[in-house]
Structures are given as C-alpha cells and as structure tokens.
C-alpha cells in the first residue's frame, strides 16, 4: 500500500498517472533517451557489452573513470589500416612478382586482390554502421550477423590468419636482417654451399633467429602493450618514408638513372660474387690477364686453359640493372616469365650459344630460381599484402564516431594502397631490368634489396625502413591476435577456449598470448615466407568471404533492424566479393582452401553440438525463416507424391492436474515410428479460458517439450485452451500444422477404463476423433495397452511384427512395420503378413499374389493366408450382442443415481439372461472351435465376459458379486450419467420389453465378425511383439458409440500390444521407383 502511495506521488504532477502501472516494465522516455545518449562504446570487449545476456562472470570493478574515446578518422582508422596493409610483401616480393608474372599478369593479380578487399570494405562498412559496434571489431560484426556458429568459426579463422601473419612478418624481418643487413650473423654458414644445402642452411638460420625474435616480441607484448602502441607511429613513418623513397627514385631514373650494372654471360645472369670485373680478361700494364670470372669458369689462370664450353662460346656483356622509366624496358617486362626451380635467370632478346650437354649443375656462378613459379603461387604470396583492412573496425571502441570513421577511413586506406600497388607494378616494370626483377634476393646486383636499388637517396632507406615496419607489423599481430582470442573466449561459444579468456589483473590476455606465440612458432618452423603467405591468405579470405555473406544476407532478407547509415552498398556487390574470395582461395592453393574450410566446418559443428546457445538475432536465423516460408509456399502447390509420403504425425496426449503427460510411452512409439524424420506435432488440451488458464497452458507446453526432449522426438508442441475436451481436440485436429506442412496422421492412445462412468467424455471424444479423421481423410493410429509398449532404450532380440491385412487402407499396414524396423528397438523383429480368405476365394493364388506384391514393394515379410469359413452365429455371440444392446437401451431409459442404476440394471439383466437360456433358440447352431471340441457357449461365464479392467463391486446386499453378477457389472460400468432432471422411474412395461427384445441383426453380424477374427488372431499372433490390425469405421449413428467400442474390445481381446490402423483414403506406398 505504501509503495502504491509512493508511486502515485512520484508520477503526480508529471502527467503520467495514466501510465503509472506500466512504469515498472516500461521506463519513461526521458530516462531512456538519457541512457542512450550517454552510451559509450568503450573498449571493454564484447563480453562486458552483453553482460546482461551472458552472466558467466560478474561485472568488473571499475579501476578508474575511463575517458571517452577521442580518435578520429585519420588517426583511428586511416593510418592504422595503411600500416597494416603495407607490409613485408611490398618490399621483399613485389619486384620479383612483377618479374615473374609480367606487368600484365601482376596487374591482374593486384587488381583482383584489391577489388576483393574493396568489396569487403563496402560490406564491412554497411555492417559497422548498422548500430553500435563495441570493441571486438570484425569478430563482433560477423558473429552478430551470422550467429554464434559462423561467428565462432570465422573468428577462429581470423585469429589464425592474424597469428600466421605475425609469423610472416617475423620471417620477413629475419630475411632482411640476414640477407641484406648483416649476412655474417648467420649461424649456419652458407659460403661454399650449393643448391639444397645452401637452402637448408638459410631455412635453419630463419628458424633459429625467428624463434628468438618471436620470444623477444612476445615478452615485449606481455610486459607493456602501451609501448607497442606508442611505437606504432614510428613504424608507420618508416613505411611511408620507404614508399616515398621509391617514388623519388622512379622520378630520378627519368633524369639520372642510378648505376647498378648486371653482368651477363651470353644471356645468363652471373652472381656478383663470381666476378670482380664483368670481363673474361683485363688489360694490366699492357698485358692481358685473366679475370676472376675466368678463374671461376676455367681450370687455370692460363689463357689457354680448358674452360666451360658455354663460357668459351659466349661473350660477357654488362647491362644496366635500372635503365630508367624512359628506357622503354616496359615492353620487355610486359608478359610473364615463369621458371622451374633451379633454372638459370636469362635475359630475353640476347643471342647465346647453348651448351650441347646442358648447363652446368653448379649454382655458384649464375643467379638461379629458388622455387618453381606459376600464376596461382603469385596470387597466394601477394594476397597478404592487401590484408589489414579490419584494423579500423578492430579499434571501434576507441573511435569518437565509429559509424562515420570506419567506412571513410577504411575505403580511403584501401584506395590509397591500391593506387600505390598498381602504380608500383607499372613503375617497377618500366624502370628495372627483367633479370633484376626476377632476382629475388638481389644476387646479381651485389646482394642489394631489388626495390632498394630503385630508391633514392640510398638503398639503405628501404632496407632499414622495411626492417622496422616488419618488426612493427609483427608486434601489432602479436598484440591483436590474443585480444581477438580473448573476445571469442569470453563470449563462451567455444567451451574449451574459455581458459584463454582470463588474463592479468589489468585484463591483458596472458594465456591467449602464450597460445598465439605457440601457433606463431609453427609458421616460424616452416621458415619460408613463400610457404607461410598462402596459409594466412586462406584464413583472411575465409573471413572476408563471410563478411560479404553477412551483408548480402541482411540486405536480401530485409530484416527490420537492417538500417545501415552507409548507403553505398548492394547485395550484388557483396555476392561478387564473396565469389572473388572463394575463387581466390582455390586459385591460391586448393588443398590449403580445403583444409581451412575443414577447420571452419569442424569448429562450426563443435559449436553447434557443444557450444553455448546464443540468440543474437543473426542473419542465419533470418534465412532459415525465409527458407521455411519458401518451402511452405512450394508445398502448397499440391499434395506430395506417393513416393514422398511419410507419416506427419499429430500426437494427441492428455495431461493431468499438474500439466504432466499421462501416457508418456506414446512419445516413445512416436520416436520409433519417425526415426527423427518428417513432421511431429504433440498436442494437448487445457480445459478453461485463455485469460484464466494461460499459465497452465504454458506449464503444459513446457512439460511436452521436456518429454519430447527426453524421448528424442523432433517436432513441435501445441497446447490449446478450450471450454471442454471435445472442442479442444477438434481444434487441434483442424488447425495443427501450417500451410502445406500439415499432419496427415493422428496418433491417439486407446481410452483407458472407457466403461467407467467418469470416462464417458473421453469415450465420446475418442469416437469423435475417429469420425473427424475419416471426414478429413487423415490416417489414424490407435495403440492399445500403450503402457506395455517398449521404451526407446529397450531392444527386441527376436519376435514378430504381425500385420493382419483385412481391408486395403492405402498401404499403411505395410508401411508402418517397415518404419518401425528402421528403429533399433524393432530392428531384430521379423515381419509377418496375414490376410483373410473367404469361402469363394482361392487362398493359394492369394498367397502367390501377395508374395509378388511384397516383392515389388521391396518389403521382406513372411506371408500366410487364413481361411475363415462361413458359420452360424453362436449362442455366445447372440447373448453378448443382446446384453450390449440392453445396456445401451437401459441407459437411455433410466437416469437414476449411480447406485440405483447399478441395482436396477443388474436385476433386469439377470432376468433377461435367464430368459435367453430358457428360450434356447433352435435356429442357432453351436460351432466347434478348433480341435478342442468345446463350443463357445460352454465357456465359463468369467471367460465369456467382455474384456475390461474389472473393478471389485459389492452386491446390493453387501456380499461379493457372483460370476454372473460380475458379467453384468462389466457392462453396467459402461454407462454415462444422464441428466437427472429428466429421470423417469423404471416402468414395468419397459422392463418387460427388455426381457422380450431381440438383438439388432447389424450388431449381431458385427459382433460375430469381431469374435471370429479375435479367435483367429489369438491363435496365430498370441506371442507376437506387436499386432497391426485394420480399425473398423465408426458408426454413423452417435447412439452406437458404446457398441462400437465394445466391438473393438472384443476384436483385440487377449492381445498384449495392438496398433489399430485406419488409412487416410490415399495410397501411401508404391511399387514404382
């Protein structure tokens, strides 16, 4: 009461009294706008951003107030992207790629790769501007757009790509150090070694120094990330100055080309260390003396010494390594010059006399190719030089306005780098001699870095600049990758990675850094920059592919939340980018592409089965809805073909007062019938009104879902609330399913104790369900004694499933045993089919025809034809029918209390039974049953009674009922209570009519059939594990419902498990393929 007063005072005077009841759940607009306006996407990680959803860790205590992010487009996005995109490949492999692939081929490669990243940047800009992007960048965008499974898989791929990028940068750093700066620092000496031995020594040096540098860098990252960030500008300055030096050198070549002579023997490029002067002999004091080159190719210093044949037959010429941009060398370098491993670099257009025996195998004279080159290899090696476009989005938490800065900064950075790359391809081809371009390590130009020979004022500008830039890029990779892994771990979608979400007190990811260093060491052990580059290309391409997919999906699905501020995107561009990424993956290396996809698929399936369930409103959920809608619309086009027919089951269950399922074993049978395929709807009814009983319906729905999960039934639950049981069941039958995906089969259990007065409504409901399925042309399955059916954990090691095929129902009786035997419970059971032959049928021919029919159906089953000869109605049948009809008539005429009804019916039927015996009609012939020689009429009264769950009743006098009375008690309990306002005292005339009545001939025939069939079925299938039987149709007259149930009871008497089957009026099985 006090709280209500406070609330009224709180909103009094604010014009909010009308809405004060909603204020607990719906805040005032003013407070909502205030919280939104003050939102700050601080770099706290995606885990903390969604703390309300993921309550795995408590909120972190705030150390100190954090300043709002202040980085703009230039410092926050543009320059970091420039630094990450320009890297080791530009300085170490770009000139070699132009020499090998030619200007045209290299331009195509650069254009393809830059187009891919530009299209990806457009897609990424759309995603990044579609709402606030917290720290976590690309991983956050992909996972929230494509869901946790794709997000986790792509996040891991992006992490692996970043980690291997660190390894590539470290290898590039060591290559610059050992080849161009201090070659004498090599632990494994390469002087005097040739071929594979020299290559192995170089790789071992890379491994040793690479591991040392990796350890040092990891230590720097562990001790202080702030120093790495502070040095980032210095490293960026090195990159920019190096590129500017190259452009300055290009301009200088037009005015005054630098002197970098290359010595050519015939048309073969010579190693610089193989000569001192580019001549065979030199003039010294008017005397001709052999040069060092002579001594390299000849066996002595004498001018008449025996020399290499190629050396003797060809002249030595010196050409300019950098003829300059105006020299016209571009035409020579226009097309590719792919080489096999170990082939000598030759200059085009120079005449030479070839060796008859081929070139000498020695490699200490000529410049030779170190790997076999081809177009796709160049793509794989070059692509890492265009990665790094995510650097801006990864810093989204530090940006003042991420939605404005990310698109502008990223696209501007890609445009800048693309222009630099494309112009570099043309300028390198126009300025540098082809043999120098193809000289990967500058062995023909005195061991200089080839791009350095072009730079101005000195090659050392490039060497030192590229060394520091590769160091900086390696540190950035080792800083970024552990944080990405930490973000994935803290999301909790990959359980075994959760340990890597922990770190130092200040949040630094210690464990993630250790794992990153370990994976990076794998790349160091590979040791070859050319071998590591395609690996990280795969992971980055996969990441970019899914960014494009996410944008395309969101655009095509038109989800209401898809409202990017960046408007210059289109789904076609995203699909083009996705196609380019996929194509480049297989162009680079098809086996690496398959491995990368395999890793992503394994992570996807792992998250799907073991990962935490997250609902992030992702696009995959949206595409599932769209695909479902499309499929449902297609299903509306017409009914399924017989070959595609399968039971789509609506299971009708009842719940108790606690909303628990009363007969859970019926869902076990559902699972065994379905084997996880097709549609299953489990429905129940809650009696009441929607307003008052909604909570009960929710509990019932949860109970159904739990039971379905326990029984492994894949499907949907449906609970309706109605004023009575009959209407609720009818509503379920009518409205279950959606569109073309509707049920075609009803599964309902046999009503237990239907003869009891309290179960009268269930009896009526059951018969009405039978009628409704007939009208709606639905199949009906009624398991009797459902409690005795096996659970999903049981196994039958032997036994039979018996099918009694009496009338054709479209093939349901044939199909159901086949479906059951697909399940492990019934797999060992054999199938038997019985059919009934009449007097005028040829039973032998029937059996042959049935065997042929089953052969064409591809169903393995034993066949037996049972002959049923015509016989007269037995006295037992006559009596049973008469008692059944008397019961029905009495209950119509009498509306007494329950106890009075039982006493009156007992007295009337006792007299009636005596009357029947006195008459003993001579027209009835008692048949002999089987070989026992005992007539049906001679059975003991207890055996002749209707098979029901008898309850112990007392006679009116208080004694125990006699056997005769027990029989009467059976049908007495069938009655339902009538309206006592219409009660009429039992009239003697009515009682006399009962004593003199004769049974209806229609009912008599039906009872006779039921008894005869039951005798035959018991004789053949008493020990069967399951009996499937045609279910007779319901009576048209609703007054005969009790009689109908009695017929079914007689038909199935003595059988343990019976499945009554009623077809839906269409063929469900076919002999055609």
From TrEMBL:
Keyword Transmembrane: yes
InterPro entries: AA-permease/SLC12A_dom, KCL_cotranspt, SLC12_C, SLC12A_fam
Start-end of Polar residues biased regions: 945-955
Region annotated Disordered, chain positions: 40-66, 912-996
Cellular compartments annotated: Cell membrane
Domain Amino acid permease/ SLC12A, residue spans: 77-250, 367-650
SLC12A transporter C-terminal domain sequence ranges: 664-779, 796-927, 1005-1073
One of the GO BP terms on file: potassium ion homeostasis
Example of a GO MF term: potassium:chloride symporter activity
Membrane topology: Multi-pass membrane protein
Entry keyword Transmembrane: yes
Sorted UniProt keywords: Cell membrane, Chloride, Glycoprotein, Ion transport, Membrane, Phosphoprotein, Potassium, Potassium transport, Symport, Transmembrane, Transmembrane helix, Transport
GO cellular component terms, semicolon-separated: plasma membrane; synapse
Main location (coarse class): membrane
Catalyzed reactions: K(+)(in) + chloride(in) = K(+)(out) + chloride(out)
One Pfam family hit: AA_permease
Feature: compositional bias, Basic and acidic residues: 46-60
Transmembrane segments: 71-92, 104-127, 139-160, 167-188, 208-225, 232-251, 371-391, 411-437, 457-475, 511-529, 535-556, 568-593
Lineage: superkingdom: Eukaryota
Protein family according to the UniProt entry: Belongs to the SLC12A transporter family. K/Cl co-transporter subfamily.
NCBIfam families: 2a30 (TIGR00930)
Protein's recorded name: Solute carrier family 12 member 5b
Species in which this protein is naturally found: Gadus morhua
């Amino acid at each position: 009461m006090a709280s209500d007063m406070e609330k009224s005072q709180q909103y009094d005077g604010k014009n909010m009294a009308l809405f004060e009841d909603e204020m607990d759940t719906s805040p005032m607009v003013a407070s909502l706008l205030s919280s939104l306006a003050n939102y700050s996407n601080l770099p706290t990680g995606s885990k903390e951003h969604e703390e309300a959803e993921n309550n795995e860790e408590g909120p972190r205590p705030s150390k100190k107030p954090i300043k709002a992010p202040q980085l703009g487009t230039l410092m926050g996005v543009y320059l970091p992207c420039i630094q990450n995109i320009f890297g080791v490949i530009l300085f170490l492999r770009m000139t070699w790629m132009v020499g090998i692939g030619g200007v045209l081929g290299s331009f195509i490669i650069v254009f393809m790769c830059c187009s891919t990243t530009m299209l990806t940047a457009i897609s990424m800009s759309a995603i990044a501007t579609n709402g606030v992007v917290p720290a976590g960048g690309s991983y956050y965008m992909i996972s929230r757009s494509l869901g946790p499974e794709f997000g986790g898989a792509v996040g891991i791929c992006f992490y692996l790509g970043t980690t291997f990028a660190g390894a590539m940068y470290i290898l590039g750093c060591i290559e610059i150090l050992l080849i161009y700066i201090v070659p004498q620092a090599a632990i494994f000496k390469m002087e005097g070694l040739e071929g594979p031995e020299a290559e192995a020594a170089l790789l071992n040096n890379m491994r040793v120094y690479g591991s040392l540098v990796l350890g040092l860098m990891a230590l720097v990252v562990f001790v202080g990330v702030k120093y790495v960030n502070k040095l980032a500008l210095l490293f960026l300055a090195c990159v920019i100055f190096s590129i500017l030096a190259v452009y300055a050198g290009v301009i200088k070549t037009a005015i005054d080309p630098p002197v970098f002579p290359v010595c050519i023997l015939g048309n073969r490029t010579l190693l610089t260390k193989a000569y001192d002067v580019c001549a065979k002999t030199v003039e010294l004091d008017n005397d001709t003396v052999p040069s060092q080159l002579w001594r390299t190719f000849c066996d002595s210093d004498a001018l008449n010494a025996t020399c290499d044949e190629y050396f003797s037959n060809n002249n030595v010429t010196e050409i300019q390594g950098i003829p300059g941009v105006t020299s016209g060398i571009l035409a020579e370098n226009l097309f590719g010059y792919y080489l096999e491993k170990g082939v000598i670099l030759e200059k085009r257009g120079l005449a030479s006399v070839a060796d008859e025996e081929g070139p000498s195998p020695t490699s200490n004279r000529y410049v030779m190719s170190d790997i076999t080159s081809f177009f796709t290899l160049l793509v794989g090696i070059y692509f890492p030089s265009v990665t790094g476009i995510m650097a801006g989005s990864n810093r989204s938490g530090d940006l003042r306005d991420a939605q404005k800065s990310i698109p502008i900064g990223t696209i501007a950075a890609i445009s800048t780098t693309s222009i630099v790359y494309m112009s570099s391809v043309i300028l390198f081809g126009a300025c540098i001699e082809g043999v120098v371009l193809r000289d990967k390590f500058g062995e023909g130009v005195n061991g200089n870095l080839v791009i350095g020979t072009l730079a101005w004022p000195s090659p050392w500008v490039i060497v030192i600049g590229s060394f520091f830039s590769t160091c900086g890029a390696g540190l950035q990779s080792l800083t970024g990758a552990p944080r990405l892994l930490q973000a994935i771990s803290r999301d909790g979608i990959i359980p075994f990675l959760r340990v890597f979400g922990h770190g130092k007190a200040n949040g630094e990811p210690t464990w993630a850094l250790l794992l990153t260093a370990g994976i990076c060491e794998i790349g160091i052990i590979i040791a070859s920059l050319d071998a590591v580059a395609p690996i990280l290309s795969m992971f980055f391409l996969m990441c970019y592919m899914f960014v494009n997919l996410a944008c395309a999906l969101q655009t095509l699905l038109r989800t209401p939340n898809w409202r990017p501020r960046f408007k210059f995107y289109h789904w076609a561009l995203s699909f083009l980018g996705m196609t380019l990424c996929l194509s480049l993956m297989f162009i680079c290396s098809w086996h690496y592409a398959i491995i990368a996809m395999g890793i992503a698929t394994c992570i996807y399936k792992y998250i799907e089965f073991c990962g935490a369930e997250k609902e992030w409103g992702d696009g995959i959920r949206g595409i599932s809805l769209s695909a479902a809608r499309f499929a449902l619309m297609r299903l509306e086009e017409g009914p399924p073909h017989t070959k595609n027919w399968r039971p789509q089951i609506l299971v009708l269950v009842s719940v108790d007062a606690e909303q628990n399922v009363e007969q859970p074993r019926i869902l076990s049978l559902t699972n065994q019938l379905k084997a996880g395929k097709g549609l299953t709807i489990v429905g129940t009814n809650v009696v009441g009104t929607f307003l008052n009983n909604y909570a009960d319906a929710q509990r019932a729905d949860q109970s159904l879902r739990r039971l379905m999960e326990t029984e492994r039934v894949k499907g949907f639950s449906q609970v309706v609330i109605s004023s009575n049981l009959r209407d609720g069941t009818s509503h379920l039958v009518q409205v279950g399913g959606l569109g073309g995906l509707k049920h075609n089969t009803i599964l309902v259990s046999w009503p237990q104790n239907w003869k009891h007065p309290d179960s009268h409504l269930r009896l009526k409901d059951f018969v009405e369900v039978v009628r409704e399925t007939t009208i709606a042309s639905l199949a009906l399955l009624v398991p009797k004694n459902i409690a005795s059916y096996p659970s999903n954990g049981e196994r039958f090691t032997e036994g039979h499933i018996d099918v009694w095929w009496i009338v054709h129902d479209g093939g349901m009786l044939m199909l159901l045993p086949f479906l059951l035997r697909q399940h492990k419970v019934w797999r060992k059971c054999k199938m038997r089919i019985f059919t009934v032959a009449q007097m005028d049928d040829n039973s032998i021919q029937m059996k042959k025809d049935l065997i042929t029919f089953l052969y064409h159906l591809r169903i393995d089953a034993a066949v037996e034809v049972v002959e049923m000869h015509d016989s007269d109605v037995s006295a037992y049948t006559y009596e049973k029918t008469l008692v059944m009809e008397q019961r029905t008539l009495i209950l119509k005429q009498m509306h007494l209390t329950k106890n009075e009804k039982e006493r009156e019916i007992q007295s009337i039927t006792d007299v009636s039974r005596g009357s029947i015996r006195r008459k003993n009609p001579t027209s009835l012939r008692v048949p002999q049953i089987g070989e026992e020689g005992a007539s049906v009429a001679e059975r003991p009264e207890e055996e002749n009674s209707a098979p029901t769950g008898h309850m112990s009743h007392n006679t009116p006098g208080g004694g125990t009922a006699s056997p005769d009375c027990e029989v009467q008690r059976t049908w007495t309990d069938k009655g339902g209570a009538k309206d006592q306002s219409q009660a009429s005292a039992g009239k003697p005339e009515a009682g006399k009519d009962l004593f003199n009545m004769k049974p209806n001939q229609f009912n008599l025939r039906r009872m006779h059939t039921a008894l005869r069939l039951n005798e035959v079925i018991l004789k053949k299938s008493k020990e069967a594990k399951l009996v499937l039987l045609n279910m007779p149709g319901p009576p048209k007259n609703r007054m005969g419902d009790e009689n109908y149930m009695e017929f079914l009871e007689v038909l199935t008497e003595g059988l343990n498990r019976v499945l009554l089957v009623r077809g839906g009026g269409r063929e469900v099985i076919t002999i055609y393929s």
